[in-house]
């Protein structure tokens, strides 16, 4: 019987996984498949040796025949022949390999090393000579060749090889090797000559610096300075290198020529772009900290900050905050031309969008520029030109800046050109009238004591904006100061008659204070009455009552109390309980100040009490969102009639129920109408079926008549039988 397979209950992955790499590693470590080493073979017979050599040569020849381009096969073959002492055969193999691939540098090197191993110097020299002739761009051949000549102390030959190599303008390391060889044998002049050719082949600042350091190392200070000067002249102002100047300045610093070093640093900072002069600037800062005075250090820090600001404004020319910092830095340096140049560069970055919010910071550049020209540069004509250019630049049809117009006018006034200032402000009002322009122009005329012009400006201002209550108030105050009370009263009357006012309470208060200051008590009462016809605000009532209480009349207290009572009646009609409580608090304090305890107790009984209530919260969808508690004010007159509120709620509930019943009746009527329509359709269908059946009966012949008669007689018999059975049952 076949055995059943093992069932695996847990099919989840094991916690420790074994990879194929681990399996192979363990197999290798345990050496499951043991490979026996190749046995040693001892050869004692020359014939057997010759046979073995022949076999090996055949193997090597077969490998070469299969792949002639494989340099490794040629090298192995030649080195095996060398190991057998067959030098001629090894040379033959190398030559055959070079014929197959003359660009294989490894083949040339192994060939030459074999000759050197067997002290065949001329053969090796011949091989290297052929190699550098065929492959002059392979530096390894030249290095090996010169090393071999120097090893056998053939310095003249090595120098000749280097000269041949330098004709090919090799890399910098080749020149350095040539110079190092000359210096190993103390040939300083030869090394200097090599450097002269070196700097012409590789025109890099690092080469010039290395040449100068070479001269310093051997004590030739003047020659080193000459090398640096030649380097600066060679590269010129357009391609000057910060690295070269730093090295030159540090050289002068080591020679204690501090002024020369400072001059070199300043020369570089003035000519090298700021983004490329970071290294030079850091070196100059360190130099000034070590050898400079406070002024020099400040100058370095100033240049550093200037570099930072230049970078910021270059990245974002419309970053006006960076321009402000840069301008302050330029002004602190005391150089007017430099500061002016920064201002001109800053104002050239006009905002790209004609919206006022983008121009707010930009316009201050012009303001600072004009102030700088007036106060620091003392150039009034240029200041006037700055203001004019700014005004011409602003798109006044879209928006304007009243500050610019007013500053320009004030500048003209300081220059005692009043007519120019008036023309400028008149032009501003004509082009783009604004509240701030009118206020500034009026203020200037007030300072000049030109009151007729102030009246004219106020008239124009009110034509422009008649809803500004402050303008009406200031106009009336001006007339009051000038002593024309009737004119001031007329202005107030015109103001309160305006259909639209931005702050009418300010205007009415000013009008009342005006009449009160003149002692016109009746006019004040009349104004309060007129104001209460327009508004029922509690502060108006309190102010009216306080005014009456402050009068020196006998019945002033009664008048004030009457006003409080009237105010309480009016506010009781509304729903604002806070205003009503505020009135009662003011009324109570008034009664207590008068010393009327009975009246004060009367007011106390009118005060509300705080009651905690609950109300339902409703969300945006009209659904209930919970309940919250709040404090409400309950007045005594509300507590005396609680049944009215209950009756009102009952009436609301009754009205809702009646509406619901009406909706139900309408729905029932609609359902009945739909049912009646269905019954009529069924009756019509039945009538049509009856008509069809009658028509079919008419078509039938006499057979139908006879059959009907037989049926009738049968039915009569059945009826008689049924009647007899019924009678028998009744008798039983």
From TrEMBL:
Pfam families: HAT_PRP39_C, HAT_Syf1_CNRKL1_C. GO terms for cellular component: nuclear speck; post-mRNA release spliceosomal complex; precatalytic spliceosome; Prp19 complex; U2-type catalytic step 2 spliceosome. SUPFAM superfamilies: TPR-like (SSF48452). The keyword Repeat applies. The keyword Repeat applies. GO terms for biological process: spliceosomal complex assembly. Residues 74-351 form the Pre-mRNA-splicing factor Syf1/CRNKL1-like C-terminal HAT-repeats domain. It is found in: Nucleus speckle. Residues 671-686 have a biased composition (Acidic residues). Residues 687-718 have a biased composition (Basic and acidic residues). Keywords: mRNA processing, mRNA splicing, Nucleus, Repeat, Spliceosome. Coiled coil: none annotated. Residues 721-732 have a biased composition (Low complexity). Residues 658-732 are annotated as: Disordered. Belongs to the crooked-neck family. Involved in pre-mRNA splicing and cell cycle progression. Required for the spliceosome assembly and initiation of the DNA replication. This is Crooked neck protein.
